[in-house]
Amino acid sequence: MSMIFFTSVVRVRDGLPLSASTDFYHAPAFLESRRRLKALAMQLARHPGRGSAESQDFRIHFSSAGDVACMAICSRQCPAAMAFCFLETLWWEFTSSFDTTCIRLASRPYAFFEFDSTIQKVKRHFNHAGTSQMQSSLEKVQEELDFQPPVVLSLEEVDTASRLANGHVPVLRQPAPPFRMEPVTALGVLSLVLNIMCAALNLIRGVHLAEHSLQVAQEEIASILAFLIPFVACIFQCYLYLFYSPGRTAKVLLLLLFICLGNAYLHGLRNLWQILFHVGVAFLSSHQILTRQLQEKQSDCGV
């Protein structure tokens, strides 16, 4: 028996539908739920994470992270853990198929209509697979729901807010749920330790040079900056390794450039081996940042 009737992938900031499943339900109660799902999509920026809204005959569930949210109209008999497991699977499928730039630049509804076939495949899998086949995934999602229950919204409040905003809801961005990164490796820990050491050396030398410059010449100001800018770059490298950030590649290359240029300018205040040490640590940290990816989805929580 089908428990997931309709699915929509929307852009969080403005509720623009990016893709949706084809439905063949024309009951008045279902059409009313479709209308309310559209109104709720316009307000997702206010409700990051997971949430649910309940009508007389159906439940609307949504799960958002970053720029994309997945929404579904389910029967009242559909377990919440199954609905959110389905939405998480769909989110992973969509974000792995289309890059962030395309999503942000989309200007017309259902710009990714070709994703409909994937939606149908995932929906069919969850509608017809036995609960025992997804037991481990459902138990994991249920533990997450017990620890952090989804937001429960009133459809009447959604309708009221939609009428007041006249279809234009101010975007109140809140931090999205953190992306799960792959575990830290031993080499990654070593790069962090060495990076902190380089940052400390740069800070100490820069502050020491500034304190002992009674009449700071232009060359000394440049040398102080050549110490302090790599210090800041090292700290940001540590941050990029520990936490996910969009556009990591460009940021890593920019930080690496700052560190290399700063150390090249310091030739004379540092010997060749010191410069090679700082640049080598910067390259090691850059490699570790770029090779630490988002954690893959659980194998049982999908198709």
UniProtKB/TrEMBL annotation:
SUPFAM superfamilies: SNARE-like. Pfam families: Longin, SEC22a_C. Its main location: endoplasmic reticulum. It comes from Octodon degus. The keyword Nucleotide-binding does not apply. It is a multi-pass membrane protein. The chain crosses the membrane at residues 184-204, 224-242, 249-266. GO terms for cellular component: endoplasmic reticulum membrane. May be involved in vesicle transport between the ER and the Golgi complex. Keywords: Endoplasmic reticulum, ER-Golgi transport, Membrane, Protein transport, Transmembrane, Transmembrane helix, Transport. Coiled coil: none annotated. It is found in: Endoplasmic reticulum membrane. Belongs to the synaptobrevin family. Residues 8-119 form the Longin domain. This is Vesicle-trafficking protein SEC22c. GO terms for biological process: endoplasmic reticulum to Golgi vesicle-mediated transport; protein transport.
